[in-house]
């Protein structure tokens, strides 16, 4: 089996590595070559999803697709809604046409909800919080209309991301805590963080099982970024006082929903997920630090 991962960043590379570990031949595709640490030697193809001909060419010869491309910087997307829609909504239309019935798994987002509920399930009504959520929702519907796709909405993904252009929250916190500069994070912005390895494991299991439809993946804990950052500090032996509280509206989280949290009412019915319960944030930090994944770079 040959699987194409559209997106070669932090999560795309983790999905590619998981596929390879299960004897599936992965190919990652993106507009620009991945970083050496991120790619881990995965085969790469150049692809701009806004180009229908390029999508047909790269998809040809593959058996299944995972779609996890950017842009995903929500602040940038809010300032550039046309470009965001072209990449996500337009890209999904091109991928759907090129896939021609092949299984597709789209990684989507909690930003398709407005955050008025403490946490959202698959059956809850969508109401996108921002330009990123609107573009992703169109992408979901375009691919789900093919009848051979699954949209996996994931909550805040974290892990160690040493060479990312915009490292995830965990990596940013660890670096700022270790160098003593500290972090300013909101105590009024809630998430259900999920470890990147858990997202990759779910993604590949669902793809290989041929699942379609809609599914949510959030971590088992609902907590504010402030509370989470203090627990990260404890995990890496830093002073929790280096974590400073900042209202969500005053920082770059202003365009995020207050409750960016997900839970699933469907996952427990899927046997391929029975042994893949997501880790809590403390167990995730231990897994990253004890296995020497977190390093100074």
TrEMBL record:
One Pfam family this sequence matches: RmlD_sub_bind
InterPro entries: NAD(P)-bd_dom_sf (IPR036291), RmlD-like-bd (IPR029903)
Limits of the RmlD-like substrate binding domain: 1-268
The protein, known as: Sugar nucleotide-binding protein
